[in-house]
């Protein structure tokens, strides 16, 4: 079987790519090893940058996002119980973020793909890439226990951190960078009315907490926990008590409710500095991971795809290869910016050394500087909402 672009992975990256290509009249087939139900219910991120929302509008996949997404114009940063607001719309000339769950994004993108006739093969696991140096590379995959081959002019590796695409790049082509953090996040979803209309990132002596939300009746909350901690150690009462302590500030009341999702995620920064080999191009978590503080993961995946789609379209429509050759260089500028910002936010808010230590005072000083300097607050705001162009 043959198509123009073989896409591995039906996450935000792969699905967005297929839709952009379709809009330009280019055919693709998506291979996804999980079931549709599984990818549509996988709970992950929730913060969409302005650029991401704009792209979903351009693709006409934003009807429900427009209805149900929550537009945020500011964010609260809290340190030792002292809270300040960063009005990012004022500081960035009106740029905002939208809160809308990743699984809702994925549902909308899948529905749009299927209604436009884009072929998504669920339960089809790619396991080998061949002919990457040729003009006719192919993906060998297994569907219903039968081995199949999909040939294409390009392969888009959108198969996440644990996928096979990155492993197909020759090692000597790139350097990789990894940083593991000495803490993890316990994330919950609860049927609880949000306790604040806007997000709250909070440092306390007990560790970090984040208050986020999904709707008027669903809260999304996170707690810094030790690496190797397990959800069995966190009965619901303990979670609410800890969140209440870490989000405390004068007059704040934490709304509680039934917890229906509880997961621990490790934190890492990871990247490779070259995202292409022959006719294989990588995007999203397949090429980079940022720690979640700041909500950049999904947005970066979509930003990569903008460059990749643009390069494929220029090739198919005008037979030009320049954008293909510049893909890594172009995408990496934003990726490094997001790596730095995510690392900055992670160090600003997590307890990483003794309360009262040198590191603690640096964190506190940065926090105070936000209040003292509009320039500093603006720098944080423009990174948080996402730079328009990098
Ligand atoms: P993915 O969404 O991972 O999609 C890759 C797809 O490829 C998957 O559907 C997978 O099943 C499929 N696949 C893998 N291997 C194969 C194969 N061999 N053959 C076929 N298909 C394959 N980001 C934030 O900004 N905030 C958060 O709070 C946050 N929380 C997260 C929590 C968890 C547990 C995880 C794992 C990630 C989280 N992220 C968060 C990151 C964010 O969700 C990712 O950055 C985003 O999903 C990246 O999209 P992607 O399309 O590149 O990869
Ligand atoms: C969410 C996750 C994040 O990592 C973040 O920085 C903000 C919001 C969320 O899941 O809502």
Automatic annotation (TrEMBL):
Keywords: Monooxygenase, NAD, Oxidoreductase. The keyword NAD applies. Residues 3-342 form the FAD-binding domain. InterPro entries: FAD-bd, FAD/NAD-bd_sf, PheA/TfdB_FAD_monoxygenase. The keyword Nucleus does not apply. GO terms for molecular function: FAD binding; monooxygenase activity. This is 4-hydroxybenzoate 3-monooxygenase.
């Amino acid at each position: 079987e043959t198509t123009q672009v073989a896409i591995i992975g039906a996450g935000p990256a792969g699905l967005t790519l297929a839709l952009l290509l379709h809009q330009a009249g280019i055919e693709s087939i998506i291979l996804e090893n999980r079931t549709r139900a599984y990818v549509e219910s996988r709970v992950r991120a929730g913060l969409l940058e302005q650029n991401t929302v704009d792209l979903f509008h351009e693709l006409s996949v934003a009807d429900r996002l427009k209805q149900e997404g929550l537009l945020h114009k500011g964010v609260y940063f809290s340190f030792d119980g002292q809270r300040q607001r960063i009005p990012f719309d004022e500081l960035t000339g009106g740029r905002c973020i939208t809160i809308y769950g990743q699984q809702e994004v994925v549902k909308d993108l899948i529905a749009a793909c299927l209604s436009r006739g884009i072929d998504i093969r669920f339960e089809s696991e790619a396991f080998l890439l061949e002919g990457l140096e040729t003009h006719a590379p192919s993906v060998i995959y297994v569907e219903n226990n039968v081995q199949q081959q999909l040939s294409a002019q390009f392969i888009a590796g959108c198969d996440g951190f644990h996928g096979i695409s990155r492993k197909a790049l020759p090692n000597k082509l790139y350097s990789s960078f990894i940083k593991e953090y000495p803490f993890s996040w316990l994330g919950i979803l609860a049927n609880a009315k949000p306790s604040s209309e806007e997000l709250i990132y909070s440092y306390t002596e007990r560790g970090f907490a984040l208050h986020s939300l999904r709707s008027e009746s669903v809260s999304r909350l996170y707690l810094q926990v030790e690496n190797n901690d397990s959800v069995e150690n966190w009965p619901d009462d303990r979670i609410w008590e800890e969140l209440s302590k870490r989000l405390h500030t004068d007059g704040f009341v934490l709304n509680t409710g039934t917890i229906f999702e509880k997961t621990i995620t490790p934190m890492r920064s990871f990247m490779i500095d070259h995202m292409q080999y022959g006719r294989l191009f990588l995007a999203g978590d397949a090429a980079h991971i940022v720690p979640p503080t700041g909500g950049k993961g999904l947005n970066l995946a979509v930003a990569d795809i903008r460059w990749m789609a643009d390069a494929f379209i220029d090739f198919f429509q005008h037979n030009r290869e320049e954008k293909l050759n510049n893909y890594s260089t172009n995408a990496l500028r934003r990726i490094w910016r997001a790596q730095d910002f995510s690392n900055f936010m992670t160090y600003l808010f997590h307890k990483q050394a003794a309360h009262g230590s040198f590191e603690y005072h640096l964190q506190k000083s940065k926090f105070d500087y936000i209040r003292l300097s509009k320039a500093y607050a603006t720098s944080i705001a423009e990174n948080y909402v996402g730079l328009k162009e990098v």
